[in-house]
Amino acid sequence: MTVRAPLLVLRLSALGDIIHTIPAVRALQDSGAAPVGWIVERPYRELVELVARPDAVFSVSTKRWRKQPLSAETRAGIAAGLGAARRFGRGGRSVDFQGLVKSAFLGWSSGARERFGFDRQAIREKPAGLFLNRRVAVDRKGHVVQWNMELARAAGAVAGEPPRVDFSPFALSGDTLLAYRQRILLVPGAGQEVKCWAPASFAAIARELGARTGSRPVVVWGPGERPLAEAVARDGDAELAVETNLRQLAFSLQMARLVIAGDTGPLHLAAALGTPVVGLFGPTNPARNGPWGQLDRCLSAWDSTRWMASISPDDVVRMALTVLG
User: Of 89, 104, 165, 215, which residue is 20 to 30 A from 321 by alpha carbon distance?
Assistant: First the structure.
């Protein structure tokens, strides 16, 4: 078998976006004998290693680079990360699923001869296109998983549909977490404040769903979100989850009866693990960014105000009970 030139994937962050990229990368892996490497932010390295299983993973810390661009530590980190990626990818192909200047620059600096990315209409930061030489048009009416598949096919993937991916190896069990089996999990936090639904609204659905199902919902939280989660748990007569790392959170989501969240990583991770979800969308379009495979289980203000506050707690309870059957 002829080994093709190496292929370097660029999707640095965040959790939900990486989840939406993995099917396209698996399609690329299934399409030939080319070794596949992936450049990713350090917090998501384990997810990429355990689920996508590329031949090489190169972790970077671009947020730290941006905060301290001239420090010796930053220069050493850039040199180490780029050096390893350059040794892997020189003369091959890179596929930039992120569309930012920093990701496109990393592809260019890797020495890849062919550098695939989205065309001007779809790319997130227009100047990033200057680092590409294979600009791919996609159907922007589709979901981002479909965008990524179109980009992967341009780079050599032969799959027609996104392949099924098993995310369960990422879920790390813990005895304490077994208490959340078949519970409703609420995720009030989000990476951007505009994607957060009001704590009072989460508390309202916690009280109602607890009464209707006979089981108190559990409020899960991430770094910096504990005060928010405590407020929801207190006012909603819900249980506050213990602190978890990302893999323990995945285990909790995998065991849940239902997960209710905004457009945030845990929502997409729950959907990828096969857990029923209800997604709450305001400033982002669920047709493009919704939980893949469960787009019909979203409540959205995208076509009206685009404000999370426009989503009614009564509608969320009704949707949740419908999903629960």
Answer: 165
Q: Which residue has the tokens 């409020």?
A: 219
In the structure, what pLDDT confidence band is assigned to residue 75 with cuts at 50, 70 and 90?
Answer: low
User: Which contacts qualify for 49-54: CB closer than 8 Å, 24 or more apart?
Assistant: 50/169, 50/170, 51/22, 51/165, 51/166, 51/167, 51/169, 51/170, 52/22, 52/25, 52/26, 53/29, 54/9, 54/25, 54/29
Helices 265-272 & 246-255 angle (0-180, nearest 10): 50
Enumerate residues 6+ apart whose C-beta is below 8 A from 317: 205, 208, 209, 212
Residues of the chain by 3-state class (helix, strand, coil), percent to 5: 45, 15, 40
Q: What is the DSSP letter of 274?
A: T
> Is-above-0.90 flag for pTM?
yes
Q: pLDDT band at residue 190, thresholds of 50, 70 and 90?
A: very high
Q: Model confidence over 252-279: pLDDT tens digits?
A: 999 999 999 999 999 999 999 999 999 9
User: Is residue 32 very low, low, confident or very high in pLDDT (cuts 50, 70, 90)?
Assistant: confident
> Domains (ranges, CATH) in the chain?
7-165 (3.40.50.2000), 169-324 (3.40.50.2000)
Which strand (E) or helix (H) includes residue 206? helix 199-213
